Amino acid sequence: MKTNFLLILALIGLACSSPKAKDNNKEDKAKTESTAQTNSDQKSTSNDVQTEDSMPVREGEVNMNFKINGLQGGGQTVDLVGMYMDKKYRADSIKLGQDGSFSIKNDVLYPDGFYYILLPGDKVLKLLLDEDQTFDFTADAEDIDHTAKINGSKTMELFYDDFNFKKDIDQQYVPIARKIGRMSPKDPEFDATYQEFLKLSNK
């Protein structure tokens, strides 16, 4: 009985070690590795590339009209670039008018979030969009941020008001902070400078 059992095991071992069995094992292993690699590649692609089909879609009116005074490069096509999670994506393309005017119209709302348009001359027009995507925007090309005027979107108005307020404060805050850093508390101007610094900090 024991001899028969050992003989059976030996025959099984020979069958597994035969060239055909080895080839089958190699083929099965190659198929498994190929399938795993394909799945890995598909997963990597879906994580790295933001496709249009995966973006949230909402019906609604998009009617954004822009007039940038003094803008050069009329007739060019520029991109509306959006941020979705940690990805940048091209949300739309825009044809600039010769007078610095252009419009973005659609019957599907863009996802809420931050967008920007890189205009000729390295000018950047920033947008913060929510469900209200119907408004008029005017500004001067030399200083879009500070000259921006928005009509029709409270979100955009507040965005530029807040952005400019912080920008102005930073421009005043940083020089005074540096000045205090170079001064001694015994300096006659230290108290006055420090009080000015506190006023800006509390704004």
Keyword list:
alpha+beta; Immunoglobulin-like; four-stranded mixed sheet; 31% strand
Write up what this structure looks like.
With 203 residues, the protein is an alpha+beta fold. The chain folds into three domains: 2-48, no CATH class; 52-152, Immunoglobulin-like, CATH 2.60.40; 153-203. 45% of the residues lie in helices and 31% in strands. It is built from five helices and eight strands; from the N terminus they run ααβββββββαβαα. It has helices at 2-17, 19-48, 144-147, 154-182, 190-201; strands at residues 58-69, 77-84, 87-95, 101-109, 113-119, 123-129, 133-140, 149-151. The strands form two sheets. It has a four-stranded mixed β-sheet. The chain has a four-stranded antiparallel β-sheet with strand order 3-2-5-6. β2 and β3 form a beta hairpin. The longest helix is centred in the N-terminal third of the chain and has 30 residues, at 19-48. The chain is elongated, with a radius of gyration of 32 Å.
Provide a count of the helices: 5
CATH topology-level name of the largest domain: Immunoglobulin-like
Report the CATH architecture of the largest domain.
Sandwich
Radius of gyration: 32 Å
What string gives the helices and strands in order? HHEEEEEEEHEHH
CATH class of the largest domain: Mainly Beta
Taken together, the total number of domains comes to 3
Mean pLDDT: 75
* Percentage of residues in DSSP E strands: 25-35%
The largest β sheet comes out as: 4 strands, mixed
Q: Whole-Å distance between the termini?
A: 95 Å
